[in-house]
Amino acid sequence: MNHFGKTFKFIREGKGLSLATVAKNHVSTSQLSRFENGESDITVQKLIQVLEEMNVSLNEFIHACQDFKEDEFSRMIGQLKIHVYNRDSMRMKQLLSEQLMKVELGIHEEFHRINAILIKCKLKEIEKTVFVTAEEITYLTDYLFRIENWGYYELRLFANIMENLSHRYLMLCCRELVARTEFYSELHEYKLLLSQILLNGYLICIERSKFIEAVFFEKMIASHFFDETDIFNRLLFHYCKGYYKYKKDKDVNGILEMRKCIGLLRSVDSHHLANWYEKMLENIPNK
Predict the structure, then answer these.
(1) Which domains does the chain have, with CATH numbers?
(2) Does the N terminus or the C terminus of the chain have fewer Cβ atoms within 10 A?
(3) Is the pLDDT at 283 greater than 90, yes or no?
(4) Which residues of 235-262 are buried (b: 16+ CB within 10 A; e: fewer)?
């Protein structure tokens, strides 16, 4: 509470605003002053109202309260993404050890156990000697189905374990996905992540030759997502459609479309992504 108040005061003074200007009729200036000095609290509703008077979003304020650092899960996912791109299994194992150590110490045990299994799912893609047990996958899916409204954490968790799910579980989760994220559907970052999950589901179905289910994802994506400014996801959608065309109909034009998308990624210096999708393309048999 004290930290929140100090951060609020830092932002207010940085904008050159008085207590009275910010407080308006939402809260008394004396109560707001006590909040800034760590002497009392204010409700979330009042906090949002006075933040709006400063043109500061709640997300911005929380980020400032965390000393402008990402939360633990975001930091871990960011590091994991880099290590996966670089195929750096040693650093991935270090991340895994850190999470398992926290489980052993009883620190936020469920959270760190989930993180550890997620890391193992990604590590398995690089080292074939690493196995994720059925019990570990069940632990993740039980958690997801226990949560009625999936937030950003649950979406990112699901996005990173999709390829490790059986096809039945994958489709069950994806069909539940829209209903379980409806609560947050108007938030841009959630909609963006949801679209990326659907794209990944589309790609997985094509790889598994589940063409009927692939059409389900294609229709969902085409009808709900991607305005003209969302260049990357539109590009990836075309890559997937090229893959579908080749995989289902053996149409070589699909391969040409995939190569065109990879070339466009390279043209904007997205070389890690281009390498990732090029490797997928090179692994397609009989192309």
Answers:
(1) 2-65 (1.10.260.40), 228-287 (no CATH)
(2) N
(3) no
(4) bbbebbbbbbbbbeeeeeebbebbeebb
